[in-house]
């Protein structure tokens, strides 16, 4: 018997689609978006995961759970609870860097969500960046909707008749197609809900990190505060979304009409525009792990375009490789040997690379007293990661020349990140902006601070309009690390784009730990193998302790160099 009627449109319970997608969400977002999350049971579950991952953390986990259950006051203000949660989170952060385990960092973030109050600015700042990065993973779930819908259809009907099957199963085939389409629509609706709540959580984390005062957030766990607070913050945006979408589509239609008119006009002319380097291949295919930083360049009607491109032929129109993240544990060990007094800052900076394939840091400002070794630290981290380093001295840089000079001028040159890319031959070099707070404040020729702003934003950096090449370039993978003694005179828009990390000055107690790397550096500067330079003896260390009371590493290095030179001179005379 053949079925000729078309089955009615089917609908799937949105809750079923939500339950199907929720386990696929990244760990942090799954905790934030769980509607029925109970903090006590969630703490017990994560405690079991932590002890499974790191059995030596059992004592910290037990103390964390015990402090929660025994608190007799407001949990978020209990000093014993704060101390134990901080110890556990710190342990997981160090474990993530030492063993290069992203799961440890994720567990630390979930513990932060469950342990901190909604008005905790540091906790919110910690979660803002990871949540933003995981938003892309939520959007990527749509790629598997077809397979999920087909699997759910097979579970419901037993089997799906293939197209072209016998006529007596046509009705069953139509029902399967309708059911699969219904599942696909339900999954899209569930993803839209998750995406909206994710945006709310990200907005709340960023706002709370900046000190937004919300009475509700102070009384609940951070995991329960993010979505409600974010929905309040984003409500005006949601109310105007439909209007903006209509305007956007009108603009797109107008641009399409303009592009079509230009295409027809261009097709009617016989003039062709030469390109650099090869007009026959306007864009190279970009393989995985590469970035097309500078596309082809248009000539201006003379050989001026060729002179501008001279020296940059190896990057124009050619995909450039990204430097991969090496063994983070080994990098951490080398950096802590050279900078034993800055271990906490090293861990926070290297945390950006956990779980990443390619080395790119968030825009960061290292703040510390003169002589703390900030510039040296940036140079060493670039060396150990294999990144090309480009140094800009903010005290001498000619204002906005950092962003490039227009090709109309005889002194035109590309933006400094493009020059760094050309020198290193990679798409993710490291930019060091030294003494950032000492940059010139006059705006006669533009300010360095203002030129930095569009290059620090990921969206504008992906399409940075280089004034020399006069084309959109992609410098979004370039890392920016700045140094400063203080931030009092830096403009607020610049500080909003920079993460601030404190570079402590070495203490008197760090003297012996610093002697090894300083002697090795002196040997390296003299072209010697550090193994052939004898360490300083007890008498020299005693004299150094009297002469150096902590502070400037440069002063300590001069003292050590004087001892090494005197020892060598004495050995020659004898």
Q: Explain this structure to me?
A:
With 574 residues, the protein is of the alpha/beta class. It folds into 3 domains: 14-238, no CATH class; 328-502, 3-Layer(aba) Sandwich (Rossmann fold), CATH 3.40.50; 508-573, no CATH class. Helix content is 53%, strand content 7%. It is built from 22 helices and 11 strands. The protein has helices at 14-21, 27-33, 39-53, 58-70, 79-99, 102-115, 121-139, 145-157, 170-209, 222-239, 241-268, 304-309, 328-338, 343-350, 374-385, 416-424, 448-456, 458-462, 492-496, 511-525, 538-547, 553-573; strands spanning 275-276, 290-291, 297-298, 320-321, 364-367, 389-393, 430-434, 464-466, 471-473, 479-484, 499-502. It has a 5-stranded parallel beta sheet with strand order 6-7-10-5-11, with helices on both faces. Strands 1-3 form a two-stranded antiparallel sheet. Helix 16 (416-424) links the parallel strand 6 (389-393) and strand 7. The radius of gyration is 29 Å and the shape is globular. 33% of the residues are buried. Mean pLDDT is 79; it is low at 1-8, 160-170 and 270-283.
């Amino acid at each position: 018997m053949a079925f000729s009627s078309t089955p009615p449109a089917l609908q799937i319970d949105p809750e079923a689609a939500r339950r199907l997608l929720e386990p696929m969400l990244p760990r942090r977002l799954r905790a934030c978006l769980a509607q029925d999350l109970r903090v006590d049971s969630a703490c017990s579950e994560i405690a079991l995961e932590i002890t499974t991952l790191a059995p030596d953390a059992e004592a910290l986990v037990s103390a964390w759970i015990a402090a929660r259950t025994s608190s007799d006051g407001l949990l978020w203000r209990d000093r014993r609870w704060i101390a134990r949660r901080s110890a556990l989170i710190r342990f997981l952060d160090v474990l993530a860097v030492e063993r290069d385990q992203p799961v440890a960092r994720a567990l630390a973030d979930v513990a932060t969500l469950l342990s901190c109050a909604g008005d905790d600015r540091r906790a919110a700042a910690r979660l803002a960046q990871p949540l933003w990065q995981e938003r892309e993973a939520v959007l990527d779930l749509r790629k598997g909707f077809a397979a999920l819908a087909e699997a759910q259809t097979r579970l419901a009907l037993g089997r799906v008749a293939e197209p072209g099957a016998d006529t007596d199963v046509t009705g069953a085939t139509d029902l399967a197609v309708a059911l699969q389409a219904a599942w696909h629509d339900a999954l899209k609706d569930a993803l839209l809900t998750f995406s909206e709540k994710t945006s709310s959580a990200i907005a709340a984390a960023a706002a709370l990190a900046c000190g937004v005062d919300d009475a509700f957030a102070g009384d609940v766990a951070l995991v329960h505060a993010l979505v409600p607070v974010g929905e309040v913050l984003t409500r005006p945006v949601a109310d105007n979304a439909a209007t903006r979408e209509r305007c956007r589509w009108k603009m797109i239609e107008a641009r399409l009409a303009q592009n079509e008119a230009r295409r027809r006009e261009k097709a009617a002319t016989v003039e062709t525009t030469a390109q650099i380097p090869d007009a026959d291949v306007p864009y190279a295919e970009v393989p995985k792990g590469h970035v097309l930083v500078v596309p082809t360049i248009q000539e201006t009607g003379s050989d001026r375009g060729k002179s501008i491109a001279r020296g940059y032929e190896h990057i124009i129109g050619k995909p450039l490789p990204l430097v991969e993240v090496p063994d983070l544990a080994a990098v951490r060990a080398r950096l802590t040997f050279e900078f034993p007094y800055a271990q906490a800052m090293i861990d926070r900076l290297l945390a950006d690379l956990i779980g990443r394939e390619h080395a790119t840091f968030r825009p960061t400002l290292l703040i510390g007293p003169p002589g703390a070794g900030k510039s040296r630290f940036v140079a060493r981290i670039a060396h150990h990661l294999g990144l090309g380093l480009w140094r800009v001295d903010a005290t001498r840089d000619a204002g906005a020349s950092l962003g490039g000079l227009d090709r109309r001028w005889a002194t035109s040159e590309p933006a400094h990140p493009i020059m760094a890319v050309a020198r290193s031959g990679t798409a993710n070099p490291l930019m060091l902006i030294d003494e950032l707070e000492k940059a010139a404040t006059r705006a006669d020729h533009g300010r360095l601070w203002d030129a930095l702003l569009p290059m620090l934003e990921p969206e504008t950096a992906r399409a940075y309009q280089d004034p020399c090449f006069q084309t959109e370039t992609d410098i979004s993978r370039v890392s920016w690390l700045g140094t400063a003694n203080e931030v009092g005179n830096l403009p607020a828009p610049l500080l909003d784009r920079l993460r601030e990390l404190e570079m402590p000055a070495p203490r008197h107690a760090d003297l012996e730990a610093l002697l090894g790397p300083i002697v090795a550096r002196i040997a390296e500067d003299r072209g010697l193998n550090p193994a052939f330079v004898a360490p300083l003896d007890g008498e020299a260390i005693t004299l150094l302790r009297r002469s150096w009371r902590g502070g400037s590493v440069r002063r300590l290095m001069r003292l050590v160099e004087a001892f090494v030179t005197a020892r060598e001179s004495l050995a020659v005379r004898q």
